[in-house]
Design goal:
Distance between the termini: 49 Å
Helix content: over 70%
Number of domains: 1
Shape: globular
Number of helices: 6
Radius of gyration: 19 Å
Number of strands: 2
Structural class: mainly alpha
Largest sheet: 2 strands, antiparallel
């Protein structure tokens, strides 16, 4: 993308991934409601919203991968994944908990951020002790 000059076209933030996720919900729900598995309608086996939640997490990860997984693009698929897993398991999470899990996953995934975070924590600890 750098060679062709089209990098700015896929420079995305969480809002753009949210738009794609909205379309993914519609597509996954539409397709799942029309599938038949061994003669039974698929929604009788697994509810459509659960399949749509998992589909959203996969679509968000795919779209973020297209943009190169910069930090804002990393954060959003992790949030979608945490919410989707919680929804499939039948739990409701507070938005602050979703943000905390997303922060943890982004810090684990990105080594540069992890180094900055630990240096900042170490420097804060030194200044507070004095």
């Amino acid at each position: 993308m750098r060679v062709t000059g089209t990098r700015h076209l896929v420079a995305i933030l969480g809002l753009h991934i949210g738009f794609v996720a909205g379309l993914a919900v519609l597509m996954c729900g539409f397709v799942w409601k029309r599938i038949r598995i061994r003669g039974y309608a698929a929604p009788l086996l697994v509810a459509s919203p659960k399949i749509a939640a998992l589909g959203v997490a996969m679509f968000a990860a795919f779209y973020a991968a297209l943009a190169g997984f910069n930090v804002p693009a990393q954060r959003t698929p992790w949030m979608f994944a945490v919410v989707a897993i919680a929804y499939v398991c039948g739990r409701r999470l507070a938005s602050s908990l979703v943000l905390c899990w997303a922060l943890a996953f982004v810090l684990l995934a990105d080594s540069k951020l992890r180094k900055c975070w630990t240096k900042k924590r170490a420097s804060n600890g030194r200044t507070m002790r004095r």
